[in-house]
Amino acid sequence: MTFHVLVPDSVHQKAIDILKASAGIVVSAPGRMERAALLNAVAEAHGLIIRSGVSADAELIRAAPQLKAIARAGVGVDNVDLEAASKHGIIVMNSPGGNTISTAEHTFGLMIALSRHIPQGHQSLAQGRWDRKAFSGVELKGKTLGIIGLGRIGQAIAARAQAFEMTVIAHDPYLPSAIAEAVNVPLLSLESVYVRADFLTLHAMVTDETRGMINADTISAMKDGVRIINAARGALIRSADLAAALTSGKVAGAALDVYETEPPPADHPLIGLPNVLHTPHLAASTADAQVTVAVEAAQLVIDFLLHGKAENVCNPAENSS
Ligand code: MLT
User: Fold this and answer.
1) Pocket probe mutation, ligand 1, options 99, 105, 110, max atoms within 8 Å of Cβ
2) Among 233, 238, 268, 278, which one carries the catalytic annotation?
3) If you measure from the C-alpha of residue 186 to the centroid of ligand 1, how many angstroms do you get, rounded to a whole number?
4) From the centroid of its chain, how far is CA 261?
5) Domains, the chain
6) Tell me: the pLDDT tens digits for 107-133?
7) In angstroms, rounded to a whole number, what is the distance separating the alpha carbons of residues 263 and 244?
8) Atom 8 of ligand 1 has which residue's CA nearest to it?
């Protein structure tokens, strides 16, 4: 049997080459597609490889009667309807390790840029000004970094922050304490992290529990002048509440790589505030990470379609309850 694999997103060429070289796989890699063309093309597909730009929702899944496997080149599967996939017997897999370092490095870059006003200084000089006073910053050394979610990315950030002589604390209700001890980061309650952190960085998934976790109430429990970094998911923050706290000065600054809807609307309350830095969901966008996650995703699809081997499964089996 020949399996058709559709790659309707910009996924590294190495992954396409690996798929092409696999006997029994036929690959179609048109890159980003219009929705109607995608729904048409997916009808033939047994395997689908996507990044965050493709919504594998219930409509797409209904349009793909042959589909057996979806592989996400990256971590987040919030663009996949996991329930619909399970209902149709489709396995969803991700490649969680490949972009850890890129995401940690980007987060760290945001934290430094935020503490030293680097983008604002650049912009000011580019506009012909020489304003040293307005952009005086703070050191990271001696400050407390609170990490919400001490998984792979959180741990990589902790190691970098420790090298910068920061005090690192974290909240993670799912992490075994032995792992936190091994990386020398105390696990505290959310409230204790909020009260103590000078910098707060989010690395949690969006769940019913974490959606909007940064809101007026939780911000009021934080240190005055806290700086918040979010390179995880936009929905963790109630944007209007954070905007109000940035305007009042309760929060000194925020650096954001992610937004509840991407791209964010022009009237997004956080965009354009003078103490907010933005990047357009770039944390995992490095040459290095994109090769690793793409190759891993290709291998996951090959292993599943040709050998029935499933790894990094993100959705429950159809008949599990
Ligand atoms: C991920 O979930 O892997 C990152 O947010 C990067 C991406 O969405 O491409």
Assistant:
1) 99
2) 233
3) 27
4) 13
5) 3-98+287-319 (3.40.50.720), 100-278 (3.40.50.720)
6) 999 999 999 999 999 999 999 999 999
7) 22
8) 52
